[in-house]
Amino acid sequence: MSKNADEVKAKLDQLRCHFTWELLVEDTELPDLETRILDQIDFLDTKYNAGIHNLLAYVKHLVGQNQEALGSLQEAEGLIQQERAAQSDVRLLVTWGNYAWLYYHMGRPEEAQAYLDKVENTCKEFGAPSRYRMECPQMDCEEGWALLKCGEKNYERAKACFEKALAVDPENPEFSTGYAITTYRLDVFNKATQVSEAFCLQPLKKAIRLNPEDAYIKALLALKLQDIGQEAEGEKHIEEALTNTSSQTYVFRYAAKFYRRKGSLDKALQLSKMALRATPSSAFLHHQIGLCYRAKMIEIKRAANWQPRGPIKEHSDKMVRMAISHFQFALEQKPTFEVAYIHLASMYIEADDYGRAEDTYQRAFCLKSLEEEKLQKIHFHYGQFQEFQKKSEVNAIIHYLKAVKIEKASLSRDKSMNSLEKLALRKLHRNASDVESLSILGFIYKVKGEMNKALEYYERALRLAADFGNSETQSLAVEI
Fold it and tell me: Is the N or C terminus of the chain more exposed, i.e. has fewer CB atoms within 10 Å?
């Protein structure tokens, strides 16, 4: 590399733009990310659209389409210049930074330098202490939007960006919107269902006050109210959002989710299909539709006392097939959609196709960098599959134990612990000298903090192991 290119690279590293923000996106997530970006450009009504074109340019670069990336940057530049705001030059810094990086990657350092010069001049104009880096709330906001769009691994950092921007300008409608959406996503991610835990309620209400026409935010507030048991209040917001033509495709999506959770499955399917007409490749929508068909299957089976026959069974089987096709499509679009693997496997089990269920679980286990809670969930459901369908207590125990040994507190961990306890007690009932079951019960009570009970079971296990004179059995009793 030439000395000139090395000098350019040293300057590029100082920029604040998509190339330096360390956006965590796996290669397998790029097609779905691009689909979601294009959907947002087409169907989300927002005054803040330049950033999404910048992100699209970065994704185009990642998939090797640098020429198309330049086109997206031109779109972003045009939108910012239309704003004619006093701060528009500051907003252009991100786009110029992306241009500079893109030209550098295309082997055109002179053009990269030309954009670096633009950044330097603007930084100088605004009195920034750094030649190529501007610290200001607009830049924090741009970084926040980019992180937010790139998925849950980036949410905490997105929240910090919007918090930093709001600290400078607390009543800014755009910063408030970004912060509200991020806290909503984090609440969903952290399964916050208590009023005390629902951190996003106040940010959502503030964002609506500052953006009264934003139907998208109203739909999110409705879902959060439903989460915390205020469904009737939530439905008012959903109905209000549905009367607004703003961001209609997105409102249909979230309204469909609201009505599915309420049990109004036909209404949920109708709204989902309306949204699907506009965004046929949405992994989120196909997953939601699959969940509707799964819920319909459960309704049919429950009404038939879990033993449907004749035409009723045919109808139930059709719902299973419909759910499978939508879950499959969702996973084709987004191969990292962890929970969709669990739902797809559960439908294969309903269809008595244990081979495909097994394959689906194995694909889920192969996913890279799974969050602890999601891994626990996969281990729990796979343990259930092994216990009840494959009739393998040995494999079920292995996977329940794996879920429990991941120390993150979660519903899946609690369920795994209960399943493990029941299984160990059942085995012990069959054979009071089962050292493994005694050890498992000792382990469970230790995890629960009931140390006296834990010691009692561990001691029984060790005594039996000593009686058998089996060192392997002794080590198992201690190890679990």
Answer: N
